[in-house]
Amino acid sequence: MQDVLFKEEQYVFGGVLPVFFMAVFIMIAIARFRLAKSSARVAGRYNKLTFGIIALVSLVVVPTLATLHLETRYYPRKVEYRFASVLSPVFGGRYEVISLDSVVKVSVITYDPSDYGGWGMKGNEHARAYTAAGNNGVMFTFRRGKQFLLGTATPDSLRHYLPAHYPFKRQHQPTGGSL
Known about the structure:
Elements: E1 6-11, H1 17-38, H2 44-66, E2 69-74, E3 78-84, H3 88-91, E4 96-99, E5 103-110, E6 120-123, E7 127-131, E8 136-142, E9 147-151, H4 155-165, E10 169-170
Parallel strand pairs: 5-10, 7-9
Antiparallel strand pairs: 1-2, 2-3, 3-4, 5-8, 6-7, 8-9
Helix pairs in contact: 1-2
């Protein structure tokens, strides 16, 4: 097993936003439950279904989105990446691999997310992108001309890291390309 040279986690939703959504869903569930208890017209089955849906969203969907992040690990001859969340240990979430044997150029770039259709997993036959937030990334160019953009929250660290560890042509580009 190779040693990890550089590791990064970039969260899709940071700060208080996920906590806010979870609090809203819990308040809705409590209000719905109290309304159903006080109202004779609301059927018990309907109340349980509604409460179950709200509980599912509160306890599964919101924490999953709150912990959704892009993990990137740089090794001497490969780069591994994946989107992961609190459910990754349960459902797998295996790493995808970029073999550096087929890479001809690596660049730390600043890009416009709208050029790539926003953040997330995007792509076509010529280019792919895995981005979580922000407008910085590492652009890998392969021998056959295809490109792959991997988002980063630490462009300055990678500008220092890449030239020291990766043996091919590198350059900083001010803007990215389109998918």
